[in-house]
Write a structure and sequence with these properties.
This protein is mainly alpha-helical. Helices cover about 65% and strands about 0% of the residues. α2 crosses α3.
């Protein structure tokens, strides 16, 4: 049995009707869940996101990439941000700049973004806990 199926079954638990509840949520037959359990079907792989949401665990947990079942939504947001190649390139380039200069450049960049957001009617401080702590 692979790690994904093991984790799905762990989330499902031994409660009577748990497989049926998951099947109903996914819009599939209960027999499909039975086939997952006996190894004759691996279609659970195409339902990972829905299964993770149903059990309130991360896809990374189901895939065996982490042992942390739930992670705060902020981390998902951060993962989306860090998957942007321009953000990654910007971060790599700023690492090459001396610390004092980097702080000044980043402060100027933050101010520029704040001015832009304000100009288009968005409060730049809304939802940003990092600025509230500075």
């Amino acid at each position: 049995m692979d790690i994904v199926l093991t984790r799905i079954l762990e989330c499902m638990g031994n409660r009577y009707g748990a497989g049926k509840d998951l099947a109903n949520h996914l819009g599939i037959s209960g027999n499909v869940i039975t086939n997952w359990k006996n190894g004759s079907n691996r279609s659970y792989l195409k339902h990972l996101r829905e299964i993770a949401e149903f059990y309130n665990v991360s896809e990374s947990y189901l895939l065996g990439k982490t042992n942390i079942k739930n992670r705060p939504p902020e981390l998902d947001d951060m993962a989306d941000i860090l998957s942007d190649p321009d953000i990654v390139m910007f971060a790599r380039h700023t690492q090459k700049i001396p610390q004092a200069d980097r702080k000044r450049i980043l402060d100027n960049f933050r101010d520029t973004i704040d001015i832009y957001l304000t100009a288009i009617g968005i409060d730049p401080k809304e939802g940003d806990e990092t600025d509230q702590n500075q």
